[in-house]
Design brief:
The complex is a heterotrimer of chains A (370), B (122) and C (190).
Chain A (H helix, E strand, L loop, with lengths): L4 H10 L2 H38 L19 H11 L11 H18 L9 E3 L2 E3 L9 H9 L2 H11 L3 H32 L4 H6 L6 H4 L1 H14 L24 H26 L10 H8 L2 H27 L7 H34 L1
Antiparallel strand pairs in A: 1-2
Chain B lengths: L8 H25 L29 H24 L1 H29 L6
Helix pairs in contact in B: 2-3
Chain C lengths: L1 H22 L3 H21 L3 H26 L13 H22 L12 H6 L2 H13 L1 H22 L8 H9 L6
Helix pairs in contact in C: 1-2, 2-3, 6-7
């Protein structure tokens, strides 16, 4: 090949930084998209195998390709293919436009939020610094919360567009549940901002090098995990899709791939929140007792060290995903009024008290240091 | 050529559009690919197998309105708290007392809401 | 160059959504287009570098207030058939034409560059030097504008009390079957 490395870097040095950053962002987005789109099939499989193990039976293990059964990992693939090719039945009296639009509002917030999660230390390649999150916004926190509140529309639209009173009621209740738990979710993150003094997610991870967030703000962690379960409509808060309650709630009239589109959105949302929990409380991509510089020295390259960080973050997120499944198959479902009472009457005052106490402690520390 | 840094919100815009289009494709996939055989009873609204008793266009309870409006108000409070938390280091005691006053006033409102029973039965 | 393209595409989409809001017969369609319009307004804010305001716009306006609107529309559940409006009267047509004319006048004035606001001291570089949008707004709010901030909390308290008073009937006066009936009664904002 006539193009040597020196010629390539010489040409690259002349290109605007804008285009290089844009190209890097697109590469990052493709990687993140592929990772987050592979999570739902894995979760579907885990959702059936892990409870099987917990209940002393085997889960699905028959589906295979060319005799490779792979512990039933082909099952989600078979399910997806079947669902795509089935006939989609749209009720006659439903509102066609919103019926088709509702799953979109569930999928795209989850995909957008995951662009703010830092997957590793910023990589230095050829004189440019590439942050390892797809977008690096200064108001990272608020961006995350803002986009999560868009997901409420998908569910209420789905319930309403079906023109089915059970769907409407289920959709309204699920939306009311989601918005009720968004307040403790936001408030539980305020002590994190107080402690680390920044809204940028990359900064928060970098400051957790010595002590993880969970030790500095344990009540916040507990609050966040509880609200995490409620936001994604997962057990024990899954009244909305309660299988024995109002049929399937807001999903009643949805079949085939739209049905799995809702679950796609839900699982990607779970993955996103798991990554966020790992980022705020468990040090993100930091390996305990190993600093980034050590990693660079060991691996010899900034990029490899950051990719190791990414693997670490994925392991931590996987822990939270396993926690989701474990809790779902262990705890019984809450009644709806119990659920709302918990959110408004217990978690909200607790979150406020948490903020006040953390602030008081920090101000006292500040004053004593002066 | 001058070095022009990328506006950090440009990727957000790109991926917003992409996420939306991706969602639309996912939503339309089975509608486009699956078979389509029209049958009147298939396309009726599901009500446990019996014909629909009442239409879905009935009025619902007012509890949802209360929940939504309380959500807005406490969301605004959360926004103010985020603002304070970011500049917390520079504000010290003065800011802390200010925010305590703010929170106390809102706690009064919250206690009123709980006492009035506006958060029951939802 | 790219900035111009991005801005005009966001702006034209915003105008489209706004027109859709006022012309739809179905109130839910109007609400959803309004959500889109508010989201695009946030995009314009972000484009101008006001990232905090953009995030807050999505969080509070498009994410909370519009949810309230949507809930209320779904609560009321009005049959769209009843919402058909009569044809436009002469007065309404006159107002419409006046609006379009004033829009044209304003756009021409803006395009000619005759409506210029003076640039204040808070340029993008100044803000970045002082720690970004959130820090600057926070410091200003808590140091210079303390009293408006506390008044805002009173305003929120007022809103809480007012909404509960409007939506919640006094339960003490009802007993037994009547209480059950009242509790199950629907949608009556007395």
């Amino acid at each position: 090949m006539g193009l040597s490395l020196e010629q390539l870097t010489g040409w690259l040095a002349g290109v605007d930084e804008f285009w290089i950053q844009l190209a890097a962002t697109i590469v990052k987005f493709i990687v993140v998209l592929l990772i987050s789109l592979h999570v739902p099939p894995l979760m579907v499989w885990a959702e059936r195998r892990i409870p099987a193990l917990m209940q002393r039976r085997k889960g699905p293990n028959r589906v295979g390709i060319f005799r490779f059964r792979l512990f039933g990992l082909m099952q989600p693939l078979a399910d997806t293919i079947k669902l795509i090719f089935k006939e989609e039945v749209v009720p006659d009296t439903a509102h066609k436009f919103f019926f088709h639009l509702a799953p979109v509002f569930v999928i795209f917030p989850a995909l957008l939020v995951i662009t703010a999660v830092p997957f590793g230390h910023p990589v230095t390649l050829g004189g440019y610094i590439f942050p390892m999150s797809v977008t690096r916004v200064d108001v990272g926190f608020l961006f995350v919360l803002a986009i999560s509140s868009i997901a409420v529309y998908g569910i209420s639209l789905a319930g309403w567009a079906s023109n089915n009173k059970y769907s409407l009621l289920g959709g309204l209740r699920a939306s009311a549940q989601m918005i009720s738990y968004e307040i403790p979710l936001g408030m539980s993150l305020i002590p994190i901002v107080l402690i680390y003094g920044t809204l940028d997610l990359n900064e928060i991870v970098m400051q957790q090098q010595n002590v993880w967030g969970v030790f500095l703000a344990p009540i916040s962690f507990v609050l966040f995990v509880v609200c995490m379960f409620a936001e994604t409509n997962r057990a024990p808060f899954d009244m909305a899709e309660g299988e024995s309650e109002i049929v399937a709630g807001y999903l009643t009239e949805y079949g085939t791939f739209k049905f799995s589109a809702f679950f796609l959105g839900e699982y990607v949302g779970m993955f996103t929140l798991s990554c966020l929990a790992a980022t705020f409380f468990f040090g993100g991509w930091q390996i305990p007792f190993v600093s980034y510089e050590t990693l660079v020295q060991i691996s010899g390259s900034s990029l490899v060290a950051s990719l190791i960080g990414m693997m670490v973050l994925l392991v931590k997120a996987a822990f939270f995903m396993w926690l989701y499944i474990w809790v779902r198959w262990t705890l019984p479902r809450f009644r709806y009024d119990q659920l709302m009472s918990l959110g408004w009457k217990f978690l909200l005052p607790l979150a406020l008290a948490n903020v006040v106490i953390t602030a008081a402690v920090l101000v006292a520390l500040q004053a004593s240091r002066l | 050529m001058e070095q022009q840094a990328m506006n950090p919100y440009l990727p957000v815009l790109i991926f917003l559009v992409f996420g939306f289009i991706f969602g639309c494709i996912v939503s339309a996939l089975s509608w486009l690919i699956g078979p389509r055989k029209y049958n009147k009873s298939k396309h009726e609204i599901y009500e446990c197998g019996v014909p629909m008793v009442t239409s879905a266009r009935e009025k619902n309870s007012v509890k949802f309105y209360l929940t939504a409006i309380l959500f807005i108000l406490f969301d605004i409070e959360t926004v103010f708290l985020f603002l304070w938390a970011k500049s917390f280091n520079k504000l010290g005691w003065f800011g802390f007392v200010e925010v305590i006053v703010f929170i106390v006033i809102l706690v009064v409102g919250y206690v009123y809401v709980v006492k009035r029973g506006a958060l029951e039965w939802d | 160059m790219a900035e111009v393209i991005v801005f005009y595409s966001i702006a034209s989409l915003l105008v489209f959504c706004s027109i859709m809001v006022v012309t739809r017969k179905n109130p839910i369609a109007s609400a959803i287009y309004l959500v889109g319009a508010l989201f695009l307004v946030a995009a314009v804010f972000a484009f101008l570098g006001a990232d905090f305001v953009a995030a807050i716009q999505v969080l509070v306006y498009a994410g909370a207030i519009m949810v309230l609107f949507l809930f209320v529309i779904m609560l009321l559940n009005i049959d769209p058939e009843l919402l058909k409006s009569p044809p436009m009267t002469a007065g309404e047509a006159a107002v419409l034409i006046l609006t379009i004319l004033s829009f044209i006048v304003i756009s021409v004035t803006v395009f000619k560059g005759q409506l210029v606001a003076p640039v204040g001291e808070l340029t993008t570089q100044e803000i970045a030097k002082n720690g970004g949008n959130t820090a600057v707004i926070g410091l200003a709010l808590f140091m210079k504008y303390v009293w408006p901030f506390e008044l805002a909390s009173f305003l929120i308290l007022l809103a809480i009390v007012a909404s509960v008073v409007i939506a919640k009937k006094d339960k003490k006066k009802l007993t037994g079957d009547q209480a059950d009936a009242e509790r199950n009664m629907v949608g009556d904002l007395r």
